[in-house]
Design a protein that fits this description.
It is built from one helix and seven strands. It is globular and about 45 Å long. The strands form two sheets. Strands 1-6-3-4 form a four-stranded antiparallel sheet, with no helix packed on it. The chain is mainly beta and about 110 residues long.
Length: about 110
């Protein structure tokens, strides 16, 4: 993969009704369609949870060389039940290597 960001999950994130999920952003120069993979970890080995792509209409309307900011909302409820426990402490997002990513970040979202 290319750019990545890892965050520590809050304690009891899997039980907190106010915890909505994660917002991931990346600022890139439009060249190919970037993919993002979300992985979860209990230490140093990560397990893939989901892969997402930005809206094709948005990306296809960008001109080559134009910079864009893309934001994904990743609701915590899409994390499978087997990963919803205190064992899982980190979430990592990876942006496809072929993308010219300038910056990437992830934030926890609460109601």
């Amino acid at each position: 993969m290319g750019c990545e960001v890892t965050i520590e999950l809050p304690k009891k994130w899997y039980e907190d009704d106010n915890f909505l999920g994660f917002a991931l952003f990346f600022h890139f120069v439009h060249v190919p369609l970037p993919c993002c993979e979300f992985s979860i970890s209990q230490g140093d080995q990560f397990i893939l949870v989901s892969a997402v792509w930005p809206d094709l209409n948005f990306i296809n309307n960008c001109k080559d060389g134009l910079e864009a900011l893309v934001v994904f909302f990743f609701p915590q409820i899409v994390i499978p039940n087997e990963y919803r426990s205190k064992r899982w402490k980190y979430l990592k997002a990876c942006i496809e290597r072929n993308s010219r990513v300038k910056s990437v970040g992830m934030h926890l979202l609460y109601a």
